[in-house]
## 1
Amino acid sequence: MNLIENISLKPYNTFQIDVSAKYFLEFTNIDELEEILNSTVYKENKSLIIGGGSNLLLCKNFDGVILKNSIKGISIIKETENHIYVKANAGESWHEFVMYCIENNFAGVENLSLIPGCVGASPMQNIGAYGVEIKDVLHEVEALNIPTNQLEYFNNEDCKFGYRESIFKNTHKDKYIITSVVFCLNKKAILNISYGAIKDELAKKQIQNPNIKDISDAVIAIRSSKLPDPKILGNAGSFFKNPEIDEISFKEFHEANPTAPYYELTNNISEKQYKIPAGWLIEQCGWKGKVIGNTGSHKDQALVLVNYGNAEGEEIYQLALAIQQSVKEKFNITISPEVNIYR
């Protein structure tokens, strides 16, 4: 167990916020993790588990122990006539895992290309993009129960997935450490090109019969054109979730804003729900491209808050609060952070 004290966390969060941690421990397998959980430094301090640090806003120094999940490895655990089950350990880069699937012609995650972060965070957040979410491909999650030090297994239904939500983000928060995820992928691709941006990108490249690599390339091109590279400009991708509103609220909103984009949700049987793009709401409030001090809303995507070099976490947090307030005042809609905030 290699304990590091008073370490800067700037390299470990994509916002590039320069705060420090009192203690830092990295684990590369379950035995090392169990050793850490049984250690005095862990038991006597508060803790925070990180992977790629891509969905994290740190507003102050962390007076505790940071646990860096670096368990690597990808393996095929079983096959059927139509499906292949691939196990990826939690410390694997999500995008590199997607590229592995593309190279081996395993279909199902191509729409999720270029999402930052690690595999372990994917079920926690129920990450999604361009019509696909983790819940569509997840078979099983392996996680260590922190109080009991026992490995437990969660199937798709157990995870209680919602929009950027799971049991690991709410009722089981801080009770488990995800160690690996098994994905059920297709041997024969069932392509999802329902989003107009993907269709437009394929048309631009004159691709009429796309394969999963074509879809992945299209998604990478779209994301690269709209989202800043966190290695160059600190950010955590989309800062806010797209709000979902009920039918009564939607009618009021649509009457006042007839040209606003929206998506009717079909997974709620009891009553209709509508999703409004948070980026559009933020842009209409005049935030797109606006710079305040060392932070601001990105010029190409209002949904992305950025660190222009020397921003403190609290500075970005206050910007987020101001954006939330202006959207609420203008549209009577509440937008919630997708990013995990530690203050």
## 2
Amino acid sequence: MARSRYFIVVFVLCIAMFNAPAVQASEAELMTEINVLKAKVSEIDQLKIQIAELQKQVNEQKQCMMDQQGTVEQVRRSLIQSVPSDRLIKYTPGEGLEIAPCGFKIQADATFILQGTPNANNAADGTHKGRCDAGWSSDIFIEKSFDDWGLALLHLEPGQGTGAEDQLALYSNVDRDSNDTGSNVPVTELWYEHYLFDKQFTITAGKLDPANYLDQNEYAFNETTQFLGRIFRNSPAIEWPNDNTLGGSITIAPKALPYIAVNGSYFNANNSWEDVFSKPFISTELTFMPAKAFGYDEKMWGGNYRVYWWYNGLDHSKLVDQGEMTPDVVKERNYGVGLSFDQMITDVFGVFTRFGWQRPDLAIASTNPNTAPCEGSWSAGLQVSGKLWNREDDVLGVAIGQVLPSQHYKNAGNGGAAEGHFEAYYKVKLTKNLYISPDLQCIWNPRGISEPYQGDDNTIFVYGVRGQLDF
């Protein structure tokens, strides 16, 4: 028993002796691995520190960018606030697009007209059967403003068709908007305007529309939105230059007398652009504004009372009685006077009247076919705002007038009765950009013919509809 215990002890000691180096080796390896792990942990800690620093830098950069964006936004808002609201880039229906930073304003509109008549007294086939014709026109305005001291304008006006005009023989025709350019794009106006003495003195020069400086009217001056008949656009008793032409105009509007404006204009009457001072059209107009003079509310009682004089330097022949010889060319000059009044009656009603007279013993110059051979004309009308029936943007217009041939013209064998005109339209606002206007015209004694033996004496009715689109 004792010997077996001894053997077991010796066996255990032997095993311990043999296994001792292996245990010692395993401990060394573990220490090595521990040291390696400690080194890796140290590296991770360093990486964590670097990552934290990088994150801090990123956060600082983000904050800097946010601060910069905030500064830019503040500057932008400051600039916007420092610019008047009417100088910003903006679009207004009917007034176009304003690009204030460069001073440009672009405006365009299109007008479509359908007109018919049951009695076309000048039909090409010689009959008086009914006709229905159409036409369109467009006005494109490009303006460039120069602070508060100047303005340049380019007006393009393409169009096609003449409505019912070429089917009717009248002293004053029925579609002032007709503008058949064959869809070409002509330059209607091209001018520069300069302001002096805080806009008390204005000088305009270039290719001008003479009607913009003579015989204007608040309620009867825009054929695209108001009356279509020519008699209600301008007096037929003005012998205008032959189309828009080279000219210049000066307007004086003193601040000491804010209710007075005086205009003087000079145009090349034959539109030849050659020898431009030999055939002049000269006009002057005085405008009186009673609301400003008497301190009335202009939004309720605004009005303009214009009186004018004009002179046409084209060569004219004198009218003579039938049977007498008419000289081929007599260098007679034409001239005339007129008035154009418009007056608000509250913010619902507006009234207007026109009267014109020209020298009665002259034939209209053959180089200027656009003027009626009459001694005088008158017209009067009423405009009613749709406010009266809760349609604030609608407009009703009614007008009546006559073209008055001279006794000299009658004695020369022409129709001598007064040609009468009546027109009514109703402008309906469909959208902020689109208007539709039914229109009715009635003309009696067309071209002065009032007796059956003189030819056709039928009253002419012209019905139509106008569409106006503001871009």
